Amino acid sequence: MMADNSNDTPRKKGKGTQIVVWLLMAMLVVGLGGFGVTNFGGGLTSIGRVGDRDIDTNTYARALQQELAALTAQFGQNVTLSQAQSLGLDRQVLQTLVSQAALDNEAERVLLSVGDETVAQRITQTPAFQGTAGQFDRETYRFTLDRNNLTEAAYEASLRADLARQLLTGAVAGGFVAPAALTDTLYNWVGERRGFSLLRLTTQDLTAPLPEPSEEALRAFHQENIAQFTAPEAKRIRYAALLPDAIAADQPVDDAVLERLYNERIAEFVQPEKRLVERLVYPSAEEAAAAKARIDAGEAFETLVAERGVDLEDIDLGDVTAADLGAAGDAVFALDGPGVVGPFDSDLGPALFRMNAILAAQEITLEEAKPDLALEIQSDAARRLIADRVEAIDDMLAGGATLDEVAAEHGMTLETIDYVASAPAPEGIAAYPAFRSAADALAEGDFPEAVLLQDGGVVALQYVELVPATPIAFETAREDVTTAYRAAETTKALAARAIEIKAAVEAGQSLGAFGIVERTASIAREGFVEGAPADLMPAVFAMQPGEVRVIEGPNFTGVLRLDDITPAEQEGEEAAALKGAIAAQVEQAYAQDALQLFSTALTDEAGIFLDQNAINAVHAQFN
After folding, report:
1. What is the pTM assigned to this prediction?
2. Exposed, middle or buried by CB within 10 Å (0-12, 13-18, 19+), for 429?
3. Is there a single domain that holds both residue 61 and residue 147?
4. Given 412, 451, 501, 554, which is the most exposed site by the fewest CB atoms within 10 A?
């Protein structure tokens, strides 16, 4: 028998509870979704049955392949069957096919079917069966079915069953109406808004500075929180590396090459004087002249920009040379400070030009540019040198040479690292993604292999041993212990201060008397408060007006007061639209539940048998 059909079954993101759509349309999609799936044939024709209805092996394979393809598209990378199984995809597909078989049984029992005309219409309207002219094409129809290991008779029978099943499920799932009381309750819950005041506390709000920790207190804190000061389990790895930065300085540089590279990139090193300029275009020279007169009379340039119906970003030319400005170049560059000139003709018509800043000319001489250019040349030469050695390094390792021998032969550096896969900010060689990937996969007994790094370097790794988690001695961890102790004591002190303030406010004092209060006039349940812990909003919507609470979280201590509650608006287009959306969701949920209960009842009545060997055989085709 199948596993239970509880809601705890893992589901893919994006599927939600679209049971109705899946049950209504899955048979057609399954029939066309699995191009290239093996036809199991022979004696392996079904993976099980519901009552007297077999679940076809190829149908299960095609459904599984289509769902894998959908999951791959969703995540943007190839998803294997084993990964999909961890999400419960195979169980979902099985449950769907079992439900379909049960519904087919019932449709047959009540003699529910559709005519040939309806089947023919569905086939001719299916895009997969249409030719280049957009019309139904019998050869395309036959070819598509053949690609899916289907005969015309088999497909048309499955399509007829699918359409009958749609009629049955439509009768079961249709006609539900959301109760007004439920819709109103949900709407009032969603639409309610609240206003609150929040006082965030910092060390400046403490009545006295915290004392310096004693040696005894630090040592006691270290022991009480030893897990916090324990080096995690690590994989000790010995590696040989050849990095471009390590050998770049040894690469020769030809002065002639430096000069040629400097001349080729002269625009980077010699830049003419530029101006930051905006251009405001007018339909005619007369209108542009009139605008310039208004500016000369003291009117703001921004006013004219607004009148033209554009934003400053729309008229910004960026940093330009005199040549870039054409006829306006000389006038703009004659300005010794911000100002407006014009009108001048431009490629868009008469325009005013506002100069906002002067960018002085820059010139980096060859001698000044040489160090950077030399480093570029040396780094490039180092990468080419390493690339030429990679094959030889790999050959030596494949031939059984030790890391020491390979390092000596190719000038590589030998180091040892205690690698922690979960390290939040890896440094050194572990900062390379390629190194981390190789280190994650490295196991005892593996032979070293050459691994290419993103900057052109190469590294070979050798497993040494697994280093167990080890407490860090107090003297070694003293600085971290001191920091953590002060943070913990600060949190305690702020919490105590918050309790004092809460009591004072409840006794009648103003919350504002204790510091700067942030006032949020109206916020919904899904609202967000920058820097506040996640439980702030649930607290806001659990309080009564005037109630005061202390809110604590990571690096946060505050005093919260609920000021007012604004009920959901009952009138207006937005209210009606939201109520309608809630009612539609309720009705959909009812329909889904009814269909699920109906399908489950049919399944229980008919009985289920699943052939795990046949299912495993299908899964083996995906490995």
Report:
1. 0.53
2. buried
3. yes
4. 554
pLDDT band at 52 (very low <50, low <70, confident <90, very high): confident
Q: Do residues 418 and 250 make contact, with C-beta atoms less than 8 angstroms apart?
A: no
Give buried/exposed letters for 351-380 (b at 16+ CB in 10 A, else e). bbbbbeeeeeeeeeeeeebbeebbeebbbe
CA pair distance 316, 297, nearest whole angstrom? 23
180 vs 145: CA distance, rounded Å: 49
Q: Examine residue 311 and state whether it is found in any structural domain, yes or no.
A: yes
Over residues 538-567, the pLDDT tens digits come to: 999 999 999 999 999 999 999 999 999 999
Cα–Cα distance for residue pair 8/156, rounded to 1 Å? 36
Tell me how crowded residue 77 is: count the other CB atoms within 10 A of its CB. 9
User: Which helix (DSSP H) or strand (DSSP E) does residue 451 occupy?
Assistant: strand 450-452
What are the φ/ψ torsions at residue 37 (nearest 5 degrees)?
Answer: -70, 140
Phi and psi torsions of 140, nearest 5°: -65, -40
127 and 247 in a single domain? The answer is no
Say if residue 41 is in the same domain as residue 148: yes
CA dist., res. 21 & res. 520, Å (int): 42
Q: 37 and 126, same structural domain? A: yes
513: which residues sit within 8 A by CB, 6+ positions away? Answer: none
Q: Measuring CA to CA, which residue among 368, 385, 366 is closest to residue 245?
A: 385
